[in-house]
Amino acid sequence: MQDTLERALSRAAMFQFGSDLRAWLFTIMHNVFVNQVRRASARAQHVSVDSDEMNESDFAVPSTSSHSLEVLDLDYALQRLPDDQREVVLLIGLEDMSYAEVASALEIPIGTVMSRLSRGRERLRTLMSGTQPHARLKVVR
Fold first, then answer.
1. Which residues contact 1 (CB under 8 A, 6 or more apart)?
2. How far apart are CA 103 and CA 132, in angstroms?
3. Both 136 and 75 in a single domain?
4. Which H/E stretch holds residue 62?
5. pLDDT in tens, 9-44
6. 56 alpha carbon, distance to own chain's centre
7. Rounded CA separation 113/104 (Å)
8. pTM of the full predicted structure?
9. How far apart are CA 114 and CA 109, in angstroms?
10. Model confidence band, residue 1 (pLDDT cutoffs 50, 70, 90)
11. pLDDT in tens, 45-92
12. Within a domain: residue 56?
């Protein structure tokens, strides 16, 4: 949120008076988020779990943390969604934006918002239930 406001204030001259300020801010927030994800992905250190240097016990999770595992599974499933579907699902489900607000912020038609949301929710259901081949989430042993 701070990054969004900082960017908006530094680029206040770019705002067109008479347009929707909230949509402009959500567009900035979306772009900040995408840039942060790209940077984090580029910096991420990837370790093969098949490596001899890694012990299987390093991946063990206490059995009392089933709620946190569900949250991790949801996060993992969200990351498996295509970017366009994930954006819409998060803006509507997490940010509680209306279809019209999302359409304006992403500069897409409302029908596209509705179809991306529908496809994204269905894909999440499939991933979370484990009914799709290769959709299996984390296995704890």
1. 29
2. 30
3. yes
4. none
5. 888 888 888 888 888 888 889 988 888 888 877 776
6. 29
7. 10
8. 0.48
9. 9
10. confident
11. 666 666 666 666 666 656 655 666 777 888 888 888 999 999 999 899
12. no
